[in-house]
TrEMBL record:
It catalyses: DNA(n) + a 2'-deoxyribonucleoside 5'-triphosphate = DNA(n+1) + diphosphate. It holds the Pfam family DNA_pol_B_2. The keyword Nucleotidyltransferase applies. This is DNA-directed DNA polymerase.
Length: 486
């Protein structure tokens, strides 16, 4: 008991000298340990060989420490650091008034936890949260209720193909920078600036709504953002239209697609009423996280109104990001059309040329639909892996060249080599067979082929997922951010 008396005196004396948050947490942790030890001693003290005085002494010590804890918690003060040159602290008298406007536009009062800054709509919810939050290094345990003890699949909309998917890619000018090697061991010797962007909208139920568009110019990224905004409004008008079902005798318990009127199958009445078509439009780039996102995310975030949700990998890399198109929300912002940017490389971790090589020519339906007039020979020529002189194009003026650059201009600093003679001969053949007049037109053809091949590769992937999982819960990859093994 003497050891606990000494520890109690130390804690009570030190309580008045606690000045920082770290010291406060350390004191609370020691206080908890001391109380646990005293409580365990009290349990042992209930044995007949120990006196009643020992038990009363233990209870008194716990009460004194709990009282000190309460006084310490009442001393908690929130401070705001103002960065105005000199920098100084000001006292926050009402945390809710300071930050509630940043959380919602209605200005309703929120109740904040001083320890973790989670907020709640009522003081009762805050008190329930504080019971767990104040216990350092412990987890809140929440058990399911009797009515909610079974896990069930409920996301039935993810079993349906996304009606609209956008496949996109861009090309960049690699502008050379001044040699800064003297300033350090590493330096930026190229600056990438997008000069061309293209996209293909694929509609899963009506090919007439599918289209390919591209833009070459300094404003290509802002043009792309405007195109996606316009697409979101068109899709909003489509998904809010409830097309009646063509009902037959065999279609008992009618559950149909509101976009096409197609009969989906029998269902419960509640499931039919609660089913909602997803307002997401997947926008697919190959290697979005590693490259393309850096060029489009700022323009997408600022071009039109609506919040942006990020799924970050690091501070500079995003697994996915979603743009809410505010003008499509009617009165409920949760019903707005959302542009979800995803990386096909997270599902299919290989280069696009390698992925395309796995497909038979009859599987390239989207490429064929955009090049109907091509002969089989020209089609094979177009779908073969092409080459492009990325480092040669260090300014937009290079795109006005009327001849294919020499083979040495296809040199890559990453590989330290140029393209093979057969690949260069293939590029010359494409230039001649497709009557290319400038390097800019060659870039347009190269970009269009890449976008359409990406669309074919990912659509075939969606088809294969549907075939493999037909006997189980049918989930489509375009409904998710990453693949299972990403």
């Amino acid at each position: 008991m003497e050891d606990y008396e000494r520890l109690e005196r130390e804690l009570l004396e030190h309580c008045g000298r606690v000045a920082t948050l770290d010291e406060c947490f350390a004191w609370l942790e020691r206080c908890n340990e001391c109380n646990e030890c005293i409580e365990s001693l009290e349990c042992r003290a209930k044995r007949p060989r120990l006196t009643v005085g020992h038990r009363q002494s233990a209870v008194a010590r716990i009460a004194r420490l709990e009282g000190a804890r309460t006084l310490l918690e009442q001393r908690h003060v929130n401070l705001l650091y103002v960065q105005d040159g000199d920098g100084h602290f000001v006292c926050i008298k009402h945390l809710s008034r300071l930050v509630s406007a940043q959380i919602n536009k209605y200005g309703h009062k929120k109740y904040f936890c001083d320890r973790c800054l989670h907020y709640f709509s009522s003081n009762e919810k805050l008190e329930r949260h504080s019971e767990d939050c104040q216990k350092l290094n412990t987890c809140a345990i929440r058990l399911p209720s009797t009515d909610d003890k079974w896990l069930e699949f409920r996301k039935y909309c993810r079993k349906e193909r996304a009606p609209f998917v956008v496949y996109a890619d861009l090309e960049c000018v690699l502008k050379k920078t001044e040699d800064a090697a003297a300033a350090g061991s590493s330096y930026a010797y190229q600056r990438h600036e997008a000069f061309s962007i293209a996209y293909y909208v694929h509609c899963s139920y009506d090919s007439a709504l599918s289209e390919y568009r591209c833009r070459r110019g300094n404003d290509c990224v802002s043009w792309f953002a405007s195109q996606l905004e316009a697409l979101a409004h068109r899709v909003k008008n489509i998904i809010t239209t409830n097309r009646p079902m063509d009902f037959t005798r065999d279609d008992w318990r009618r559950f149909h697609c509101h976009l096409t009127g197609r009969y989906r199958g029998p269902t419960h009445k509640g499931c039919n009423v609660n089913y909602k078509d997803s307002p997401y439009i997947p926008v697919v780039f190959h290697n979005l996280s590693g490259y393309d996102a850096h060029f489009v995310v700022q323009e997408i975030a600022t071009r039109f109104q609506g919040q942006v949700d990020l799924l970050p990998l690091t501070k500079e890399k995003y697994i996915s990001f979603t743009k809410h198109v505010k003008d499509t929300s009617d009165k409920d912002s949760r019903k707005s059309v959302k542009l979800r940017f995803i990386d096909s490389y997270k599902f299919l971790s290989a280069g696009l040329d390698k992925l395309a090589s796995y497909l038979d020519k009859d599987k390239l339906k989207i490429v064929r639909s955009e090049f109907l007039a091509l002969s089989d020979e020209d089609f094979d020529l177009l779908t073969r892996k092409g080459v492009f002189p990325y480092e040669y194009v260090d300014s937009v003026e290079r795109l006005n060249d009327t001849r294919l650059p020499p083979r040495e201009s296809f040199h890559s600093s990453l590989t330290g080599d140029t393209v093979s003679e057969s690949d260069y001969a293939h590029a010359e053949n494409v230039w001649q067979r497709f009557s290319v007049r400038t390097l800019g037109e060659y870039s347009d053809l190269y970009l269009k082929t890449d976008v359409l091949l990406l669309a074919d590769v990912f659509e075939n992937f969606r088809d294969s997922c549907e075939l493999r999982t037909r006997s189980r819960a049918l989930l489509h990859p375009a409904r998710f951010h990453v693949g299972r093994d990403a």
